[in-house]
Amino acid sequence: MNELGGLARPERTHIYENPAADSGRWSHWRPRKGDIFVCTPPKTGTTWTQMLCALLVHQSPRLPQPLTRLSRWLERHTEPIAAVIADLESQSFRRIVKTHTPLDGLPYFDDTSYVFCGRDPRDAFLSAVDHLSNLSEASLADGKRRAGVAEDFQFPTDPNVLFPMWLSMPTHPWVPDGFPMGSVLYYASSFWPYRRLPNIFFLHYVDLCDRLDEEMRRLSHFLGIPIDENLFPSLVHAATFGAMKGEGDKNAPGAHLGEWRDASAFFKSARRDEWKTVLSPENLALYDRIATERLDPVLRRWLENGRTASGDPRAL
């Protein structure tokens, strides 16, 4: 097993393919020292984390490119990998790359940064329901074609019908849940054993909601970017939910490719704790059982509550 300072290092042992993405595209990647990888399950704060990193790297509330072009999803089928790589290679500044691939499917480089953002899986699920309903007709048709399903196939729109499917239908032979939007449980579990590595950093959606200034300062310290106190308030403001929603056509992932019915609706709402009233008692009980079976109890507490309530993952 590879080790770094006595700590085990991750190894790439799986390739993840689905109708949206292919992690095999990472084989084309040529790393640079300082590259930043935003690593999240879908709907757990990916775009928010990309924006935080971009604002800190560029030290301006006005980014050099729209976020949807500046920070790319490397694995996404929509664009040819050669074009994505060429765009990223042309960036002379510190690059920020989005990935939804679990850590056991990613290449690991000692001199790059991995920023993971967690979220209560039940909140993430409800945001994913919104996500599915906002996909453009072209995006839906492409996904159905790649999945080999009929054009008239429709995902259930009732969260209480889709939720048990999400928790019980595997996306890969080694991932026991997550259909159709990806597993939060498995993804978080792939990062958790490596939380003390110096180049892996944990953010949480709840902490970003409640303490954005503080969390941006933590991230800035991790990335080795000094804070300019005169400039910093403008960066925090640019990272607020309202500011990002106001420029949805620039910030929503894939907006430049027409992936959404309404790019601003990508930032519809935080869906925080809505699972308490939306999900049925049977589904809440199902989640409790499966989360108990599949999550380290310390990871579960952090994933459901965040750093402020549960502690810094590095210290847990």
Task: List the topology elements.
Layout: E1 3-4, E2 7-8, E3 36-39, H1 46-58, H2 67-70, H3 81-89, E4 96-99, E5 113-118, H4 121-134, H5 137-147, H6 159-168, E6 170-172, E7 175-178, H7 184-191, E8 200-204, H8 205-210, H9 212-223, H10 232-238, H11 241-246, H12 248-251, H13 275-278, H14 281-294, H15 297-305, H16 307-310
Parallel strand pairs: 3-4, 3-5, 5-8
Antiparallel strand pairs: 1-2, 6-7
Helix pairs in contact: 6-14
Word description of this protein:
- The chain has 316 residues and is α/β, with parallel strands linked by helices.
- The protein has one domain (3-315): Rossmann fold.
- Helix content is 43%, strand content 9%.
- The protein has helices spanning 46-58, 67-70, 81-89, 121-134, 137-147, 159-168, 184-191, 205-210, 212-223, 232-238, 241-246, 248-251, 275-278, 281-294, 297-305, 307-310; strands at 3-4, 7-8, 36-39, 96-99, 113-118, 170-172, 175-178, 200-204.
- The longest helix has 14 residues, at 121-134.
- It is globular.
- The relative contact order is 0.17.
